[in-house]
Amino acid sequence: MNTYTIVAADNIKGGGIDLLKKHFGEENVICRGKFDEDELVANIASYDALLIRSATTVTRKAIEAAGQRLKIIGRAGVGTDDIDKPAATERGIIVMNTPFGNTISAAEQTLALLFATARNTARADHLMQQGKWEKKSLVGTEVYEKTLGVVGMGKIGQHVVRVMQAAGMNVVAYDPFFPQERAHELNVKLFADVEDVLKTADFITFHVPLTDQTRNLLNAERIATMKKGARIVNCARGGIIDEQALADAVKSGHIAAAGIDVFSKEPMTEGPLIGVKDVTVTPHLGASTEEAEERCGIQMAEQVIAYFSEGKIQNAVNVTFSPDESLRAYAELSASMGRIASYLVNAPVTDVEVRVGGKFFVDKDCGVLRYSTVKGILERYGLEGVNDINAMYLAQQRGIKADLILSNGHDETLRVDHVDIYVRGKQDGLNKETHLAGTVYQDGRKRLIQIDDADIEVRLDNHMIFLRYPDQPGVIGRVGTILGDMGINIENMQVGILHKLKKASMVIGTSEAVPPEVIERIRGDEMLKVERIYSVDLVD
Questions:
Q1: How far apart are CA 246 and CA 499, in angstroms?
Q2: pLDDT tens column, 490-525
Q3: Could you list the active site residues?
Q4: pTM
């Protein structure tokens, strides 16, 4: 059994740590507090997985110091803006989060701030602590029959909606990815533009990630379009709201109050919103409940264990395909076909086309097959650290274009579920192409079923020889004799005919890797007249 070192930073604790220690061994799970960048850079190369919460920032400098060992950066929580995801992707490191562990806690913090801003709770407490009884200056407003605007209708947003509807609020929302039918089921009026929500709502709450599109989503210009006396809550991510613009709007009285749990820079002890009379601020408490920390820790532990024990990728934010477990065998097949095709095309690869055909692939996210095919091609060239996460990035760096097409396949005579790959290259001004088709039987057996235009059914062995030669008698016996003379044991041999070209393709599986001198012996045999021959090892 492999030994892995798992580091849980930012004082992650509880049942998740217990699970990790039980699986990996107590001595292989290191629990500690926050990393600063220099310390992380100095140590990260000795870790297999690094788990953090919100305190540690994993920068490009740290990721580039990780070498080839680090496989996972896990965020016990939702937000991953403290991880340089492009750098992780380039290095083939999976960035995971736990998107559902703190749903209830984050929603409840939002609810707390919605009510606090409605009833001036924080300011009332502050005055009472100073010995002041100022009821007249603390008159608030009811939420009943007011309009709540929700920007982002994920699980947290939906939970807020359900609770506030029970409190008598009408709800409008903006989320470009949320189905209109689902909004209708929830009795939510869904707008196509965020501006319409801002103009309509008495209370606004944000539940979106921080991206280039959402940064300063609520700015001075948009605040000016809101109702006078509206209230704003943000428990999502800092940076979504222009903090100076919000502070100015509250001070002017245009915005009645705000409740802010997240900030553009954290920890935030000084800033535009600190000390503003009608702004309630909390130090990023959205996920800070015992229950949320426990759920996130356990979920992350389970994901790390699943990856290192079964290869399962769950809740990876830098994987652009869904790692559907039912596609695992086809992903393995595609990687093998990609490696084989990289030999047969016999030129620097420029284009890769992956097609899938058959009922098995209906309603499946087949993007993993494109990644796996490209990974197989790049592995042939000995690229260190290539995997499904960084395959497309590395391919793009090398000018390789890869497409996925959902179709019935190029050859309509193939009636089984199958994957076709077309690999094109260019050398000395000549365009070259090779085509492979393969399938996976119900019992998991993987088979090639076409090589170029030759129908051929052949299993995938660890060590294989691919030949093309003029179709003529005696070739099978002659090749077998040469291999036998040179001590190579044949485990499998299949032949397919390219009738239009009057040529044949032969695939041989051997029990061991075939030395170059054996290949040269076959290539140089005058009787065989071999046009191409390659030895392909599907295991390193």
A1: 74
A2: 999 999 998 888 899 999 999 999 999 999 999 999
A3: 237, 266, 284
A4: 0.65
